[in-house]
Amino acid sequence: MRPALRLATLLLLATTLGEDARGAGPAFSVAAVLTDEEALDRPHDVELHGDLAFVPGKGGSIAAIDVSRRDRPEVVWHRRDPRALFDAETVLPLGDYLLLGTNDLISLDVRNPRSPRFAATVSDPARIRRINGLVRWGDRVFAACKHGWVVAFDVSRPELPSLAGSLNTRENGGLVSPHDLDRFGDYLVVVDPAGFGRRDVPGQVGLYRVADPSTHGPIPADAWELVGLVQSEELVGANRLQVRGSHAFVGASRSGAPGHTVVVALADPARPVQVAAIPFSDTRGPNGLAIAGDVLFLAGGRTVEAIDVSHPTKPAKLASYECPEAFRAGRDSAHDLVYRDGYLYVTGQNDQSFCVLRLESPRVRELAERKGAGIPAVGRGGASR
What we know:
The chain is built from 1 helix and 29 strands. By secondary structure, the chain is mostly beta strands. The strands form 7 sheets. A 5-stranded antiparallel beta sheet has the order 1-2-29-28-27.
C-alpha cells in the first residue's frame, strides 16, 4: 500500500447543518473517505460505470475506483502523468470506452477496467484545450473548452474519435469561457462563469443551434449560431449545468461570495428566462451538480446540498450537510458528485480524496428515486445523455 493512501470510515454525529428541512435528523452520513495523493491528484469530476467510478485529476491523473463495497472504495488502476494528462477535468463513459477531457480528448479502452488502455488522442492546441464538460448527442460528443471554444467530435468509432467541428464562442455570442454544456432539442445550452466574480460582468447561459430544425441532424459548425442568451448577477460563476425537460439547472460558484443554484426556462430558445435562484449554503460552491429523480444534488466548499425540483420554478431546499471531517483542506474542496441507489460519490479536489456519502433521509431518497421524473440517477456527463 502506498504511504499516501488513506481509507477511513467516518461516523458523524447529527448536526443541524445535516438535518433535512423537516428537522427529522441528518440527511447524510459519511460511509467512507479514500485519499490518494498520486491516483487522485486534485480530483475534479466523477462518473460511474458499473461498479467503477472514474475520476480525473487536474494535476494530471485518471483513476478507476471499485465502489462495489461502498464502505471500502479501492483504487484498482490509475495513471499519473502531470505532462500528458495535465488539467484532466472530465470523463464520459461510452460503453467499452471512456473519453477523458484534458488539453486533448483522449479515448481509453476500458473493456478490462482494471487495466485500461489508452486508445487514441485528438489534439488541436488552438481549439481543443482545457476541456471541462462533455455531452453525447448520437454519434457526436460536444466539449466545452474553457479557453473559449465549443468543439464537436465524431465518436461513431469511439476507439478513434475525430474532430468534427468547432466554434469560437468568444467571437460568436460573447461566451468567454464555456465551462459546461448540455443538450436541449436542436440546441446546446452553454454556461459562462464570467470570471467567477473577479470581473464586474454578469454570468451567462447561451443556446446555440447545432442541429437542423427539420431533420434534427447535425449541421456544419460554420452554421452554428447563438439564438438565445440570459445574463444575471446570480449566474456569476456558472460552471455546472444539467437540462431536464424545458429547464436548465445551473450551479454558479462565486469567488469571495456565496454562489447560487439557478433555474432557467428554455421553452422559447430565443428568449431563455431565469425563473429561480437559491443561495448555496456554503461560502464556496456549488461546483458539482447532478439530478436524480426530482432531486438536484450539489457540492461545494465542505457542503453537499439537496433541492426538490419537482416544480422547477419553485425549487425547495431539502437538506444541507457540512462535512469538515471529509473535506479538510480549507473551505474549497467538495467538487463533483454523482448519485446511485442511496449513495453520493463526491470528489474532494483539495483533499486528493473521494468521499462516499450515505443518504439517510427517506424523504430525499424517495424523491431521488422517483420514476418518470425525466432523468435517471446519473451524474453530470452520464452516458444516458
